[in-house]
Amino acid sequence: MPNKSNPKVQQKPIPAKGKRLVSGIKPTGQLTLGNYIGALRQFVKLQDELKDTEFFIFIADLHAITTPQDRQELKKNIRSVAALYLACGLDPEKVNLFIQSEVNEHAVLGYIMESTAYIGEMERMTQYKDKKGKQPEGIRTSLLTYPALMAADILLYDADIVPIGDDQKQHLELTRNLATRFNHLYGDTFVVPEGFFPETGARIMSLSDPTKKMDKSNDNAKSYIMLLDDLGAARNKIKSAITDSDGIIKYDVKKKPGISNLLTIYSSLTDTPIKELESIYKGKSYSLFKTDLAEIVADALRPIQQNYFEYINNPRLDEILSQGAERAQLIASRKIQKVFKKMGLGRIK
């Protein structure tokens, strides 16, 4: 929560290169409970656990424009996502939080990664195949090539650790391939990153169709919970979540995807092992389980919402973003200079 009596963020000293963690979220709408469990909550834990690691967390606004965006809505969402990052517990003294487009080197290295990748690699990306069918006005080139920008986002900071969900394994593998290929062509330049997979909650599913990922773009508002949802509405979405007819509270993704998804949410928010939850609720009804989970979700959202409204119109948010961008650009500009020199671009000696 912002400290109103001391709004000035102190400039952090520049540490020597240790380990680095990089991640970002697109500002194409409000963040969901799935984003919180699968990403933001993990970052908060990691910032305290990984003492020797510098964090670069960004709002991926360049990725948002692969599909048409309303200018004012995008501007609003960028700020909202930044405020939610902080509201969820990211500490600006431990994390460099910034907006992707404010560090121009992302776009520069993105083009260089396009020049390193092959068309076939882009066309094989599962998310491209899924998204291109949803573009009635035609497919933008960036929708095909955005994995190259995603690789640049990671490689720009020599990231050692990249937190990812199951659906992003393909993107990380492409990033590793591009780093290895570039290093082979031009000499040692990029760190080949490793993925970090959360122990639980890496992929939260839709409440209305638990065979699909929780997605804010779903037309059915009952399929997801937004972090800024009214608490009563959030409770009702949990209580109306699709389960099955046998009434047994047991984790089995294939046979019981609905209750398995709810168990994952419960386990993630309370740090209670799923096996222990199965024991606690053995012989009890889905109704009781959902009622308990609804309160747990509301309890998790309440402080996030309170913190969010403290941040969203506070000048300190801008100071934090400016500080994060300054540090990110320092690292990014050094990397681009090295890349240009390796490739023979410009007049760098």
Task: Note down, in words, how this protein is organized.
The chain has 349 residues and is mostly helical. It is built from 13 helices and 5 strands. It folds into 2 domains: 19-202 and 314-343, 3-Layer(aba) Sandwich (Rossmann fold); 221-308, Tyrosyl-Transfer RNA Synthetase. It has a 3-stranded parallel sheet. Strands 4-5 form a two-stranded parallel sheet. Helix 8 links the parallel strand 4 and strand 5. The chain is globular. Residues 1-16 have low confidence and may be disordered.
**CATH fold title of the largest domain:** Rossmann fold
Helix percentage = 40-55%
Query: Mind telling me the CATH class of the largest domain?
Result: Alpha Beta
Taken as a percent bin, the fraction of beta residues is 5-15%
- Distance N terminus to C terminus? 47 Å
The topology string of helices and strands comes to EHEHHEHHHHEHEHHHHH
Average pLDDT rating: 90
Spatial strand sequence of the major β-sheet: 1-2-3
Quantity of strands, as a count: 5
**Main beta sheet:** 3 strands, parallel
- How many domains, as an integer? 2
How many distinct helices? 13
List the helices and strands and how they pair.
Elements: E1 19-25, H1 33-49, E2 53-59, H2 61-64, H3 71-87, E3 95-99, H4 105-114, H5 119-123, H6 126-132, H7 141-155, E4 161-163, H8 169-186, E5 194-196, H9 231-239, H10 257-270, H11 274-280, H12 286-311, H13 315-343
Parallel strand pairs: 1-2, 2-3, 4-5
Helix pairs in contact: 3-12, 4-7, 4-13, 7-8, 9-12, 10-12
